[in-house]
Protein 1
Amino acid sequence: MRRGEKREVYLDNAATTWPKPEQVYLATDRFAREVGGNPGRSGHRRALDSGREVLRCREALASLLGVSDPSRIVFTKNATEALNLVLQGRLRQGGHVVITSVEHNSVWRPVRALMETGVECSIAPCAPDGTLDPSEVAALVREDTRLIACTHASNVLGSLLPVEEIARIAAEYDIPLLVDAAQTAGRYPIHVEGMGIQYLAFTGHKELFGPQGTGGLYVAPGWEVEPLIYGGTGSLSESAEQPGFLPDRYESGTLNAWGLAGLRAGVEFVATRGVEKIRDHEKALTERLLEGLESLGKAVIYGPRRWVERIGVVSFNLEGISSSELAYLLDEEYGICVRSGLHCSPLAHNTAGTLRQGTVRVSFSLMNTLEDVDYLLGALEEIAGSL
Ligand SMILES: Cc1ncc(COP(=O)(O)O)c(C=O)c1O
């Protein structure tokens, strides 16, 4: 390959997936043009149709994530809001929380803010490749621990964390577990009830292929917390009190129904393709990338090597060039979109030893091909050769 042979290759799916499946665009457009009412707010046909669309999205997610009662899934505008709902709701009164050393800022910043109000936090140390021995979590549990929060997979290192083992530890102490599934929902099998998870936060716009501005939270029965926001729900309007039942308790204000129509199409696309098949596809891409990077000789690769310990998110650096310069060159000269820097997770970079330089991050979706990987490797070889 020579410079100038430029095509567009999108490899920033951990930030948001693109392109979306055709049916996602169509479903959003159809909802906007043909449905249009406010879900749960009026009794006319458009409002009822809109409410049905939202319910179908909830049902599709419940089926994909192993939730028997779809009303336990509440919609938020992204994973960050879902994580805040639980962190603030559970820790507002104080207490102790255990998190891990690869959490995203969407966990770390609310926890830091809560620490200003007296909450105490212990951080379970992951290995430099982002993997975690669950006994590190068990060792930090205290009498006043009110929550364990753990990402399912690191958005920097691609490492999978042992959430099932951590769920067993949490159950032993009767502490609820909050799992951040922003990077795994849609690309890694999740059965919330089978795994014993009390709160699962997910985002709609990554591997579930929905539009931006969609996301949600699963809340297990008996583990409800105070809402993050209060307001109109279309239900019990005569009462000044927020409804106690789900999903209304946590869904004040008009939902992003256009987005949820698209999210349903995305979730159905994932279900039809099959999460295991999606994972197999990402395995082929990731292994090709890892082998190619190793044979370049000039790449430092972070995160676990073995597929069973990871997802299709790969961080690396090339000797002799900064991560931001490399990402810029890939975009400008080859039309390749990757992300550089700290990826909103200084904790993970501290764990990997890359806080100063950051990393280049390549992240796949089902839409990528082996040709995309080869094109990237060709570009990296040229750049490495010219340094
Ligand atoms: C692990 C992890 N958690 C949370 C988030 C936040 O997701 P959102 O921006 O959709 O709120 C991200 C986004 O990159 C993430 O990778």
Protein 2
Amino acid sequence: MPDLLSYARARQNEIIALIRELVECESPSDDPAAVARFTELVADRLAGIAKCRVVAGRRFGPHLQCEFRLPGRRKTGQMLALGHSDTVYPAGALASMPFRNQQGRLWGPGVLDMKSGVAFFIYAMRGLIELDLPVARKVLLQLNSDEEVGSESSRSLTEKEARRSAAVLVLEPGTGLEGRLKTARKGIGDYFLTVHGKAAHAGVDFTAGVNAIVELARQIDKVAGFTDLKRGVTVSPGVISGGTRSNVVPAVAGAEIDFRAPRMKDYSALERKFRALKPFDKRCTIELTGGLNRPPMERTRGVVALFEKARKLAREMGVELEESATGGGSDGNFTAALGTPTLDGLGGVGEGAHALHESILIDRIADRTALLAKLVAAI
Ligand SMILES: [Zn+2]
């Protein structure tokens, strides 16, 4: 079998040049025109090797779907490579954190999350074509425009493609400087808890008031107690609001509460506890909205089998792959929850996602690119 690792090493400078282009084309989630420019750039770089189409992303930028023209006669079924084009950085971030090639790393906004992953996948497919390695399945690359802000407009598209796919490879960064793959992600959601009391003059008419802030404080203490670190369940009140002026007994107070649950059954238990909340002060009413946004990506047998395959292919290149679980979500949560074997964290190896020191290790570019190609050829 021609050596995909040698291919990727020989193309490393080209891959770096592509990463630079992708990083320098800024694409904040909340700037649809910028995201559209980014998807056009990717589609342009795939000209001749893939057929691309865009799908409207409503108030976000367009989503991109590219089907590759790969060697191999009859294709049966589909394999989905999943990524996102948006970043958490505002337009102009390049001015303070320009793309740099320094200290054995590439630096810049979105270089790790996840523009390097996109570049690796493009070169992985180029490698299969140039070395004429047959692929059994149709291969679709989907880049969502709204992953960093919850994937509201891309979720149904992701789920539709995942349902018809034999496997999903997610191009998110690996974990840590070893680039561990991700085989489990917690489910994520928010609850919005609103307490209604009764306003009154805090001095003249104190006893006529019902203090919504006091009630909310008691509720917050209660829900924070739903955290169960042994099971990996966390509940974190993250935003509170309430009241108007200090001399008015507050009529309304509210909290936004982040929660994470590694398993669906943990989420169901948490949901029951939240729905059973009762006011401590009977004169108050409480209102609860929200719930699960991303379901947990559980480490199913299908996920493990995919990881074992990747580990074996990496070993052939002298790379020892490890796996990891994380409390952070990705679009892989949606695909795994449908039961489609999903392997995540196949993109760049580095650190500092969403931060000033976001960077990837240059000496892991070739093996990651080759691993993606080998996986596509093996699935
Ligand atoms: Zn990401």
